[in-house]
Amino acid sequence: MLGCSGSWPGPGRACSGYLVRTATTTIVLDMGSGTLANLQRHVAPADLPDIDAVVLSHAHPDHWTDVSGLAVGLRYYLGAAGVPLYAGAGTVSAARHLMGELTPPFDVFTVHDADIVTVGDVRLTFAATDHNVPTLAVRLDGPDATLAYSADTGPGWSLTALGADIDVALCEATFTDANANHGSAHLTARQAGAMARDAGVGELVITHLAPWYRSGSGCSRGV
With bands split at pLDDT 50, 70 and 90, how would you rate the model's confidence at 11? Predict the structure, then answer.
């Protein structure tokens, strides 16, 4: 868990970002502000070129802007090129608008709803969610377990879109019941829990917690 604050970083907390590893594969899911610093607690700076893939869910800045710092480090300090980056067309466009050309530090692959990509020993399956910009959730099937990441979504989408037998789901829960569905496509913890139950998820971790609520001080998990 590199960061789980929603919309902007809370005190001492980074925005959305998750490090997924198997014995042979390293994948970074989203890189919101603050996540690059936390990533280097687990991946030494000199080893950043060995990341097998960076996956970005959508174009909202709290999910990708630390990619700019990673690009600087890879290109100008580590002399690296060709780190695979997977994202939707809107996210790629936003990154290029801010950063200019994304190559050589990245090899950019545009992904869409229902696309399947294999990275090392992990299979990634993408699904479009219910959000106010095009957003891709992702299912990661590894050798020993399956992880699902909702990215940002409203209640018009469900984890069931990512299939059965999900061991762990990272699911956003931005709002309290009092602020549910107030015009921004996000979930409450209650909605995330119901969604995980309906999908038969083994364990739910709620993320993207709004820093203006007391619950935004950390991320929460449960069955």
Answer: confident
Going 205 to 131 to 160 to 141, the CA torsion angle's sign is negative
Confidence band, pLDDT 50/70/90 cuts, at residue 222: very low
Question: Quick one: average pLDDT of 124-128?
Answer: 98
| Closest to 62 measured CA to CA, from 151, 125, 171 | 151
Q: Which domain holds residue 173?
A: 17-222
Domain count, the chain: 1
Q: Residue 27: beta bridge partners? A: 20, 53
As a whole number of angstroms, the distance between CA 61 and CA 81 comes to 24
Q: Residue 9: which residues within 8 A CB-CB, separation 6 or more?
A: 3, 15, 32, 33, 34, 62, 211
CATH of the domain at 80: 3.60.15.10
Is 195 in a helix, a strand, or coil? helix
Beta bridge partners of 169: 148, 204
The predicted model scores a pTM of 0.94
